[in-house]
Each structure stands twice: as C-alpha cells, then as structure tokens.
Specification:
The protein is an alpha+beta fold and about 325 residues long. The protein contains 10 helices and 7 strands. The protein is rod-shaped and about 120 Å long.
C-alpha cells in the first residue's frame, strides 16, 4: 500500500502511476509505503534512481541496523519505532532527496496515520520542504518512546513494593522479562541517539541548516529515553538483588531455627538414649519418681539452652 502526497499550492493525493509527472523542482512529495512489495519498490527504484542495496534494506523486515547513509541523490536513514505494547520494535526507513521523502514500514504506524488524516497540517509541513516532513515523522516516533516508557514507572514501583511484601518465582521471572526488554530498548536507543546526533551536528545533504536545532531537540528526547530506561533497568536489578537477599535471609532464618532445635534435641536425645538402655544399675531406675526426674532434667536443659541462645542473640 502506498500513500503519495504532493504539495503544489494545495495538498494532492495521487496514485503511483501519476508520480512521474509530479516530480518537478517546485513540487514537494511525501511517499508513505506500508508493507512494501517488490513491484512497488521496483517502480520507486526506477523513478528515484535508488541503489539496489537501499531497496534490499527496505524490503527486509526488521533486520536492518540503525544507520544514516549518503548516496549520490538521496540520504537513507533507518531507525526503529516502538509499538504501544513495546514488545517488538518496528523498522522505519526514510529516503530523502531534493524534493521528495519516502517513508517505508511494514506495520501501520499510528503517528503516521494520525498525521495523514490532518491534510492541512501535512500541506503546511511538506510545503516547507521534504526535510521538514522527515523531521516531523522522526520526532513523532521518538516522542512515542517517551510516552510508552514513562508508563513503566508505576509498574516498577508496584514490583518493588511486591518484592518487599512477598517475593516469589513468578515475580522474579517478570522482573527478568522487563529487564531484558529495557536492555533491548536501551541498545536501540543508544544507536539511534548517535545517528540523530549526526543529523543534528554534521552537515547532511538534503537536510537544511535551519533544521539542525530541531534535530538536536529530537536527540535530547532520545537521550531522555536512554537515561530513563537505564534508571528503570537499575531499579529492576536492585529489585532482583533485594529479592535474592530477602530469600537468602529467609533461608538463613529457617536454618537458624532448625539449628537451634537440633542443638536442643542433641542433649535430650543423649539423656533419652542413656536412660533407655536395657542394662542393669541405671541411676534412679528404681526411684519412684524416676520418669518425672528425667523429664525435669530434660526440660531444665532445654529451657536453659533456649535462654542461652536468646541471650546471645541467635534468634
């Protein structure tokens, strides 16, 4: 599916077959390609003289690295956007030339669809130049990172609270999944941060000087995403360490209790074993209160040991 918008005094939406006659120096064109097909890109390749490697990257789903590449008649940019569920980042390809910009993606992008519905806004931005619509599209997607990532603040706070209350294996597994997700987002965000810095600081063909401050602003947003995700990852690592520490302490408490019980039972077992021997001349064997005396001694030893352990602070 291809949506083609032409700014020529007014915004026109045309078909791919009509594109050739609208490519003049005065007209600005935005081509949004959704779920690209080889036949469609073959036509775009012929019209805009695209390099075969660019076409190959655009037709590969989510396997192209983040980059900014310069060709003779266009600039090729690859970044990744974030869906609402943040499960799988999606690839966004941009090809910008003198009077055109091509955006290419396999999924419907909410921010792009919303922008296309506001044709007056599209016309205003596109009339300034294809680099302005490029900036707008990238800016919308980077802002989505901030919106989606910020929603995890409350989730992480609830996780930390649950770790303090009742850590369990299911909770630990969830923490590891979130931590892995943030590691993946941070890796992509760091790569995109570097490429956005290139657009903001270095002189790039087909991107006007007046847009560089705006790309610096996008870079700042990406930097905020990187810092936020790093903080979240550290919080989750801290939650894992806290959970492990609490589990270790709980195990130590159990072992301490069992050790105290075993220590108390040891002399009692010895006394019971001695007086349970089937031999002659056992002390107090013929005494009227022999059983009560032995139980009394055993209780005295048990209570004495409990008092001693408590005094030493062992439990």
């Amino acid at each position: 599916m291809i949506d083609i918008f032409v700014a020529d005094g007014e915004l026109k939406k045309i078909r791919l077959e009509e594109l050739g006659k609208h490519l003049t120096s005065k007209k600005k064109v935005w081509i949004d390609v959704i779920n690209p097909h080889k036949d469609e890109f073959k036509q775009l390749k012929e019209i805009f003289k695209l390099h075969p490697l660019t076409v190959e990257d655009c037709l590969k789903r989510g396997r192209t690295r983040v980059k900014v590449e310069e060709f003779d008649n266009y600039l090729f940019i690859v970044i990744y956007g974030m869906p609402e569920n943040s499960k799988r980042l999606y690839e966004l390809d941009f090809i910008i030339g003198k009077n055109f910009v091509i955006s290419n993606h396999f999924e419907h992008v909410d921010s792009f669809d919303k922008l296309k519905k506001n044709q007056e806004k599209v016309f205003t931005i596109l009339s300034k130049g294809p680099d302005f619509i490029l900036h707008k599209l990238i800016d919308l997607e980077i802002d989505r990172y901030l919106e989606i990532v910020s929603k995890y603040e409350d989730i992480i706070e609830r996780i930390e609270k649950r770790v303090l209350e009742e850590p369990n294996q299911q909770l630990i597994s969830r923490i590891f999944r979130l931590r892995k997700k943030f590691m993946r987002i941070r890796r992509i965000a760091n790569l995109q941060k570097e490429k956005l810095l290139e657009l903001a600081r270095e002189k790039q063909p087909f991107i006007s000087e007046r847009l560089r401050p705006y790309f610096r602003d996008v870079f700042d947003h990406m930097l905020s995403v990187t810092e936020t995700v790093t903080i979240y990852r550290e919080q989750l690592s801290g939650a894992i360490e806290l959970s492990i520490s609490m589990s270790t302490n709980k195990a130590n408490d159990v072992m301490k209790t069992l050790t105290v019980i075993a220590s108390i039972m040891l002399p009692l077992s010895l006394i019971a074993g001695l007086f349970g021997m089937n031999v002659a001349d056992i002390p107090f064997a013929d005494h009227r209160y022999a059983f009560e005396m032995v139980i009394g001694v055993m209780l005295t030893i048990a209570i004495g040991m409990l008092f001693y352990f408590r005094k030493r602070g062992w439990f």
